[in-house]
UniProtKB/TrEMBL annotation:
Keyword flag Signal: yes
Stated name of the protein: Uncharacterized protein
Source taxon at top rank: Bacteria
SUPFAM superfamilies in UniProt: Porins
Signal peptide start-end: 1-22
UniProt organism field: Terriglobus saanensis (strain ATCC BAA-1853 / DSM 23119 / SP1PR4)
Keywords (A to Z) from UniProt: Signal
């Protein structure tokens, strides 16, 4: 577990240092707060969570951004409740907008392998409480410590190609833990069809070196509130995929009607063992899981999350019930010029 005072002091020091700097635009504080419950195999966990995110523009070309996480977990036991807490920075990076086609990133960044780690993992975005079983393939510790080159290589009316390449140093620091690795991702987006297809590659450069390969496909048809997202990842010892779809209807008064706020979610996923030497963070046996979610989008960026999952494997099947309420907030940290 991380030490709370050390983490809080780091966040406060960062904010104070920039507050009295030469920032020309107003920093924004965003993020989400929630209360989540999970009953896994008959054991229930209650978890209040806060994930604040800050974006601090400095002039026209620099941006400092960071996200933290604070979790309190309560598990019933014979004496009442067993309590654990965790406080840490998820990432802390600086961005330099070098040109229309290039952004240079330095610091502790989310590993850009696949899509879930960078785009869907925050509590206020994820449709389900849990991430996919393969979320750790190619991302290592989830963050890298080093640098990125990213941007739009080509942008046309009919298509665009985005890229990101990264290098991460090895770090055993309690806060900025990372593996020595390198890799990248390239994505093709077709705006007329609202389809994105991407390929990811990662190379672990420490210990037993190995390669990671990934592919993702996203589809969000025009004039609908239907979304289809999917990923495949392959490592030396295991591989797997997930497919997730969610939908909101506009047929009964639009998305802001009480019917339009209902959002069914379905995620299907499988993992496959290639050998039994190392887990790669995946189950040690072939596993299948299906999640059925029913979310409700309240006004003022508040969501109610409910889901039921059934997981199948040779070590035993189990049910997973999850509920929660999440609020997304966004406001300036202080009055701008």
């Amino acid at each position: 577990m991380a030490r709370p005072t050390k983490r809080i002091a780091l966040v406060v020091a960062m904010l104070c240092a920039v507050r009295y700097g030469a920032a020309q635009d107003t920093p924004l504080l965003s993020g989400g707060v929630g209360f989540l419950t999970s009953t896994n195999g008959g054991n229930t966990t209650y978890s209040p969570v806060i994930e604040p995110l800050i974006a601090i523009p400095i002039g026209d070309r620099f941006l400092v951004e960071s996200r933290a996480i604070l979790i309190e977990s309560f598990v019933p036991d014979q004496t009442g409740y067993d309590h654990n807490h965790f406080i840490a920075l998820t990432y802390l990076q600086g961005d330099y907008l070098a040109s229309r086609h290039l952004t240079i990133v330095g610091g502790s960044f989310l590993t850009p392998f696949g899509t879930f780690n960078e785009r869907l993992s925050p509590v206020w975005i994820n449709n389900l409480q849990d991430g996919p079983l393969i979320a750790g393939l190619g991302t290592g510790t989830g963050t890298g410590l080093g640098g990125e080159l990213r941007g739009s290589a080509i942008s046309r009316n009919k298509y665009s190609i985005d890229y990101v390449g990264y290098f991460s140093a090895r770090s055993g620091n309690e806060q900025f833990n990372s593996q020595r690795s390198a890799g990248g991702r390239v994505s093709l987006y077709l705006p007329d069809n609202r389809v994105e297809v991407g390929l990811s590659y990662g190379r672990l450069l420490q210990g037993t070196q190995e390669n990671f390969y990934g592919m993702h496909v996203w589809w969000e048809p025009k004039d609908t509130a239907f979304r289809l997202r999917s990923e495949f990842a392959r490592a030396h010892h295991a591989q797997g995929y997930w497919i997730e779809a969610d939908y909101r209807t506009k047929a009964f008064g639009g998305l802001d009607s009480w019917v339009g706020r209902i959002e069914p979610v379905l995620r299907m996923q499988q993992t496959f063992r290639r050998d039994q030497i190392v887990s790669d963070g995946l189950p040690l046996v072939n596993t299948q899981r299906v999640d059925f979610g029913l979310d409700y989008n309240l006004p003022h960026n508040t969501r109610i999350l409910t889901s039921y999952a059934r997981q199948f494997s040779s070590t035993g099947d189990k049910n997973i019930w999850e509920t929660g309420i999440v609020y997304r907030f966004l406001f300036p940290t202080w009055k701008g010029k």
